[in-house]
Amino acid sequence: MSTTEKNHASFTSTFIFSHHTHLSLLLPKHFHKMDQLHFFFFPMMSQGHMIPALDMAKLIASRGVKATIITTPLNEFVFSKAIQRNKHLGIEIDIRLIKFPALENDLPEDCERLDRLPSDDKLANFFKAAAMMKEPLEQLIEECRPNCLVTDMFLPWTTDSAARFNIPRIVFHGTSYFAQCVGASIKRNKPFNNVSSDSETFLVADLPHEIKLTRTQLSPFEQSDEESIMSQMIKAVRESDSKSYGAVFNSFDELEPDYVEHYTKVFGIKSWAIGPLSLCNRDIEDKAERGNKSSIDKHECLKWLDSKKPRSIVYVCFGSVAKFTTSQMQELAMGLEASGQDFIWVFRRDNEDWLPEGFEERTKGKGLIIRGWAPQVLILDHESVGAFVTHCGWNSTLEGVSAGVPMVTWPVFAEQFFNEKLVTEVMRTGAGVGSMQWKRSASEGVKREEIAKTIKRVMVSEEAEGFRSSAKAYKEMARQAIERGGSSYTGLTALLQDISSYSSTAH
Ligand code: UDP
Q1: What is the pLDDT of residues 287-342, one digit of tens each?
Q2: How far, in Å, is the centroid of ligand 1 from the Cα of 434?
Q3: Which residues, including other chains, have CB under 8 Å from residue 81's CB and lie 6 or more apart?
Q4: Which of 314, 279, 285 is nearest to 297 (CA)?
Q5: H-helix or E-strand containing 467?
Q6: 299 annotated active-site
Q7: Smallest CA separation from ligand 1 atom 2, residue
Q8: Is residue 288 part of a domain?
Q9: To 10 degrees, the CA torsion angle through 422, 425, 430, 433?
Q10: Are 60 and 39 in contact (CB under 8 A)?
Q11: Are 166 and 254 members of one domain?
Q12: Is 115 among the residues known to form the active site?
């Protein structure tokens, strides 16, 4: 029996059965109101960080723990509807707002959230303003006395706030164990110095698999000693990680077992895998309304999907931040059309002029374009979806895994090139379009032939069945992980028990 299982077994439990959600919720008995644990969740203000934080708060609240989300007024809407819905199910999540500090020379209103990657100056201001939330955060801690702070990697200063009140700070990176291990190896070994050109591959040393990358797939700040906004931030993140009580992951043991182990060895801090978090959303509303308001009526979307054959459409969406040049978008349109597959394509440009002439007429009935925000989890979970063209943001990747959908990978920036390797070379549930250039500004350079070829390869080639059966196996493992007794379920139990015993010895 593993330590986690033992911890779990030592819990006396009570079942609560909710007929609304068909969710069986396990509430350890000793978390009765008197000594109820209280967790603060403070995510970075961007969709890819707030969405999993909300799921995490829901999950933890469903175990009888008090959950409070900290955010700014402009971002309250991301949480408020879900909080209402959960209230009706008897799951209480609180929200507390901290005014986003205004800086001089700044900032249009939308700078309270990173929907697009801003210029370096703006990013610096954003981080600076975020750090000014320290004092109001500490006032809230003083007032509420939570037992644990689960805060975002991009809020490294929260380690000090936690220390001031002798509360454990748990860091949430919102990425895979795999990506963390790849990043650490590159930082340690600097393998990019051993190649003579940007396109020559180098081996990422000391990993359980043979992973190769090129310089072009790394961010500039990973390769240079020059000080920049991001390099300073990453340094602060690393320092605060090592001072944190532990790390929580939106992942599950069976997805990347070698890397869970490797991470523990290399980083030497506790960690708990409690995902896939998106699987806590079981009804249509919860799956359809995540982050921004959906730009398409969910019933209309489902009707369109219902009209298609199983596994016959490709879903194309690149998350909330990644950008593409106009010519790259046109190339993508041509590639999609040339693949001959039916599709749903999500993009955030409202100006229609850039689409190739006649594209929409030619693909009428075959393609559904969503301008704005899609109900992604609802779509991915539909049986008509046969492949997901993704930028490999970690939430999207894991949502694809949870739905058992093979992936066509098209990384753009952040740690997306690492996640691509996990999908294509470790899990083998998809293939890449050949995106080679890490670009914070806008992706370009991927040709329509390659796009069409890779979509066909993943959807209809001889290899497709192999991708599908691996994807299906991971889907099963993901679902089992979150069920009672599954690895993520016991991971969460272990986390709650750890914080519970920390709190009882600290006071
Ligand atoms: N998302 C969505 N609809 C969209 C685009 C994105 O619901 O049209 C959600 C997606 O399901 C995921 C999150 O936004 O939960 C994006 O996170 P990810 O880590 O994939 O990428 P990021 O946006 O951080 O690059």
Answers
A1: 999 999 999 999 999 999 999 999 999 999 999 999 999 999 999 999 999 999 99
A2: 22
A3: 289
A4: 285
A5: helix 464-482
A6: no
A7: 376
A8: no
A9: 90
A10: yes
A11: yes
A12: no
